[in-house]
Design goal:
This protein has 384 residues and is mainly α. It has helices at residues 14-24, 44-55, 61-76, 82-107, 116-136, 147-173, 176-198, 204-220, 229-255, 260-281, 284-289, 297-323, 326-335, 337-348, 354-383, and strands spanning 7-11, 35-39. It has a two-stranded antiparallel ribbon with strand order 1-2. It is globular. The two termini are 20 Å apart.
Length: 384
């Protein structure tokens, strides 16, 4: 876990200070030193009791400022446990997939191709605007833009863009079932990297859960196993980029001294810088500009909604990696396909074949094995 330096806030209420001076020494010219509230080091009940004392007096600019600072500090130092962080990440991830599915279905009949990269660019703009509004409203805090911090965070976005590009190339040269198989292979790459770079323990049951999910994906794809050398190249490249993205994200959250909201800001700001040239190179920008049929309020509102979901997804991803690690993050990402498929069946009338149901069942079994492995690991650590 990342240990941020606790934030310190100094507050002095003029009316309380005046009353204190009058009781202690009417002629004294010295004023008491302001009390110090240490968020993260002081129990919450102590912070609340100090705030309740200030509320007994008339509001002052200083006490109001302390209220905003305390709120910002609460958002800043908010930490979720492993279960809650996984649930938050899963909810945001599924919502993002369904939002993008809705966006894609709204223009598929109007253009030749897709606007996948451009959609992520639009969503990054909304996320940057959202976190900036939160900072200006004193809800969250993070330092002003710094080039050195941006360069430290840039590899995360490089891996992210490479992951997107190789993923789209994989879909162009392979069938969807084969890409799904290799997505499970990417989880094995991530687990190996987590063990090699961060010395995270990998038990037999964890390996078994991966093999079960990989076997299920292979069985579901046996009738659509069309493989070409170029397709294998792009899928292996996508596995490496996906694993690199998750593993470097853990390194960045541990080494870069930023709050998670600051990381959300840099992640989306730099994503805009990298994604716009990709969208121009793939012709998505010109396609969008030349298609006035999608310049509608409905399309704009869907993009804004997806941008807000992406804003929370960034926070949820960083929290999940920090609270659990790359391996669990990868497993949760794979299991997210289950609720996405089922909800998509009801919302978009997507056909679910027998192979898909088999794949869902195998994934659920693999998820249970992985959960059981983590529970046993936690029990062994507690016994030590």
């Amino acid at each position: 876990n990342i240990n941020f330096c606790p934030s310190r806030y100094y507050c002095s209420n003029p009316s309380i200070m005046a009353e204190t001076k009058q009781r202690s020494s009417p002629t004294s010219q010295t004023s008491p030193s302001p009390f110090e509230v240490v968020i993260g080091g002081t129990p919450l009940k102590d912070v609340e009791s100090q705030e309740s004392v200030a509320l007994l007096e008339l509001p002052s600019p200083t006490s109001a400022a302390m209220g905003h600072s305390t709120l910002a500090s609460g958002c800043q130092n908010m930490k979720l446990g492993p279960i809650l962080s996984c649930m938050l990440y899963s909810t945001c991830s599924v919502s993002m997939v369904l939002s993008n599915k809705s966006l894609a279905s709204s223009y598929n009949d109007l253009i030749d191709g897709d606007l996948n990269i451009l959609l992520v660019f639009f969503q990054a703009i909304v996320a940057v605007a959202a976190v900036d509004v939160c900072k200006r409203s004193s809800w969250v805090e993070y330092p002003a833009f710094n080039w050195r911090t941006a360069l430290q965070w840039a590899p995360v976005n490089v891996f992210f863009c490479l992951m997107l590009f190789t993923g789209m190339a994989s879909l162009q040269h392979n069938t969807v079932p084969m890409v799904t198989v290799f997505k499970n292979v990417a989880n094995i790459f991530t687990t190996f990297g987590d063990w090699y770079f961060y010395r995270s323990p990998v038990s037999f049951l964890v390996i078994l859960s991966f093999l079960v999910m990989l076997g299920g994906a292979c069985a579901a794809a046996k009738h659509d196993a069309e493989i070409t050398p170029l397709g294998i190249f792009w899928m292996i490249a996508n596995c490496l980029c996906t694993a690199g993205y998750v593993l470097y994200m853990k390194h960045a959250t541990q080494s870069i001294k930023l709050s998670k909201w600051g990381m959300v800001f840099y992640n989306n700001l730099l994503a805009m810088v990298f994604l716009l040239p990709m969208a121009v190179f793939r012709g998505e920008a010109s396609t969008f500009l030349k298609t006035p049929a999608i310049h509608t309020l409905g399309y704009l509102s869907k993009n804004v909604y997806a941008g807000f979901v992406g804003f929370f997804l960034n926070f949820a991803s960083l929290t999940c990696v920090q609270a659990t690690g790359p391996t669990t993050y990868a497993i949760v990402g794979s299991l997210n396909k289950i609720p996405t498929t089922i909800i998509g069946y009801f919302l978009f009338k997507t056909v679910i074949t027998h192979q898909t149901w088999f794949f869902i069942g195998i994934n659920i079994l693999g998820g249970f094995i992985y959960s059981y492995a983590k529970i046993r690991e936690k029990q062994r650590n507690e016994q030590k």
